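Thread title: Can someone regenerate the structure for this chain?

I was given the following input by a collaborator and told the matching structure tokens would be attached. They weren't. Posting the sequence so someone can regenerate them.
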Amino acid sequence: MRRWLPGRWRWWLLQILVLIGVDAIYETTRALVEGDATIAFAHARNIVSLEQALGIFHERDWQVFGDGLPRWIVELTNWTYHNCMRLISWSFILWLLFRRPTAFPRVRNTIIVLDIIGVLGDLLYPTAPPRLTTAYGFVDTLDPTHANLRSSLFGPLTNLYAAVPSLHSAYAILLGATGVMVGRHLLTRVVWGLYPVLVIWSTVATGNHWFLDVAGGVAALAIAWPLAGRALRWRAAMAPFPDLS
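Best answer:
Regenerated them for you:
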């Protein structure tokens, strides 16, 4: 590889392969640790009870409000949930790798730690998302008939009870904050500043996460970000190339 790839391209290729490998391991592992349905629904009821005690059990209110919005907003909400973990996240990460490489290593490491925390959450606290708890009046806005519960980019690798913590929220805050920090235009920074709000709205309005899942995602990010920075200090693994305008 050293003979036919210049140094910059070797580094780029290595980072892409690492991310693909980490994602493949994460998706496979979380599917393998899918919890028992009875336990997952019991955990969901526990979350509802705690949210009621805290006065924040309003996910269904968000759904009802969202259903009454103009159709294009409903479609945007569904599209955001479908694409925020794949299309949007991967596009941003690749842009960061190629255009802002000095910011890339910490984001990469944070994502790795988040994925580990996510798998641990799936293993230790499997939880049914609101969309499966129809007794509370929730509707799966992405699949109202529940005919395609396991349809996704990875098909059978879907974990139905991977709700705690919400990595959608954690990724969105990570990307949004990074976009604000590295963006060079006001409009870019404003868009990325609003991006976490849109994602959190979409995860709850589509019935895929509880509010406490979102709080768990924030907590996961609060753990992952400093650990990622510490890993960089341990290895002094800063990107070797300057940012490109």
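Residues 140 and 146 are 7 Å apart (CA to CA).
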